[in-house]
Amino acid sequence: MTDGKEMHVDDSLIRSIFYEFTRDPMDSSTRIMIVVALAMNGKMRMSDLMKLTGCGKSSISNHVYRLEDAGYLKTRKVSIFSSPRVIVEITDKGLEFYRKYVSIISKLSGK
User: Fold this and answer.
1) In a domain, 93, yes or no
2) Residue 81, Cα to own-chain centre: how many angstroms?
3) Distance CA 77, CA 12 (A)
4) What are residue 89's DSSP bridge partners?
5) What is the value of pTM for the model shown?
6) Where are the alpha helices (DSSP H) in 1-76?
7) Tens-digit pLDDT profile for residues 88-103
8) 39, 42, 20, 41: which is closest to 105 by C-alpha?
9) Residue 34 has pLDDT above 90, yes or no
10) Is residue 2 part of a domain?
11) Has residue 77 been placed in a domain?
């Protein structure tokens, strides 16, 4: 309750939140963070995702692999000054998830 008024949230909105954020691979706040960051940036280096999430190399690799396997992003290796780098890019499926995520959050906040 807020200001003496009862707050009502559409049941279908609650179900969509549950469905979108509890199914694999989006059952992890770290993976949601990765998709949101990539939606905002288009592509990022794996090392930048490590810094953003606070994950170690093997942990971020696991998260990225699960998202790539599900089609939310893709990776490619590039060589910069003879040093290999992994670039992570969002896919159309990843962008679709991001748009749903933003839409649900907007509805929840009443905007």
Assistant:
1) yes
2) 30
3) 41
4) 43, 74
5) 0.78
6) 11-22, 29-41, 46-53, 57-69
7) 999 999 999 999 888 8
8) 20
9) yes
10) no
11) yes
CA dihedral 22, 45, 41, 97 (to 10 degrees): -20
Residues 6+ apart with CB under 8 A from 62: none
pLDDT at 50 over 90: yes
17 is in which domain, residue-wise?
11-105
For residue 27, the domain's CATH number is 1.10.10.10
Which residue's entry shows tokens 């991001």? 98
Q: What is the model's pLDDT at position 10? A: 67
Query: Dihedral (C-alpha) 33, 39, 42, 47: value to the nearest 10 degrees?
Result: 0
pLDDT of residue 1: 42
Average pLDDT (78-83) is 79
The type of residue at 34 is I
Domain count, the chain: 1
Cis peptide bond N-terminal to 84, omega within 30:
no
Residue 54 lies in a domain: yes
